[in-house]
Design a protein that fits this description.
- It is a single chain.
- The protein is an alpha+beta fold.
- It folds into 2 domains: about 1-25; about 30-150, Immunoglobulin-like, CATH 2.60.40.
- The chain is built from 1 helix and 10 strands; from the N terminus they run H-E-E-E-E-E-E-E-E-E-E.
- The strands form 2 sheets. Strands 2, 4, 5, 8, 9 and 10 form a 6-stranded mixed β-sheet that branches. Strands 1-3-6-7 form a 4-stranded mixed β-sheet, with no helix packed on it.
- This is DUF4625 domain-containing protein.
- Keywords: Signal.
- It comes from Panacibacter microcysteis.
């Protein structure tokens, strides 16, 4: 009886260990993977800093190429485009297999300190942002989307 109970416990432990290993196996892929982590608010007045935190993983760890950011506005057609703005990623990232890190994308809303996030002229704006990256081997990640934020005109 003890022997059967011990075998059952071992089988259950092996099953759980296998399930955890299978979940981790898909975490790192050749194409970079992004996850949207947070934004530091929902409503921003002029002079505020808007900060997005994005998580990234990559099997080869060669994420050093380009970050693309696209703003999609609900109220200002001048901020709706099919392409994003490209930013070089930090050369300080250490290339290592199974790279897992977070990075921050920050804008200064309607102030003269770069990078500047410009608001609508004469009205509040509701918008969201899309983010994707390209690694050194030209692999493009999935696209992650921020929640909708409001940029106040005043």
């Amino acid at each position: 009886m003890k022997d059967k109970l011990m075998r059952a416990k071992v089988l259950i432990a092996l099953f759980i260990l296998g399930a955890v290993a299978a979940c981790n196996k898909d975490k790192f892929t050749t194409e970079p993977k992004l996850t949207f982590k947070s934004v530091n608010g929902e409503i921003f007045g002029q002079g505020a800093q808007v900060r997005f935190v994005i998580g990234a993983t990559d099997k080869e760890g060669d994420i050093k190429d380009t970050l693309w950011v696209q703003r999609r506005s609900f109220k200002c057609p001048e901020f709706v485009s099919d392409s994003g703005v490209a930013y070089p990623l930090s050369p300080d990232l250490v290339k290592k297999n199974n790279l897992d890190f977070e990075f921050e994308v920050a804008y200064n809303y309607d102030v003269s300190i770069a990078p500047i996030l410009v608001g609508c002229s004469g009205k509040d704006d509701s918008c969201y942002f899309r983010f994707w990256i390209k690694d050194d081997a030209n692999h493009t990640s999935d696209t992650v989307v921020s929640p909708t934020i409001v940029l106040l005109d005043q």
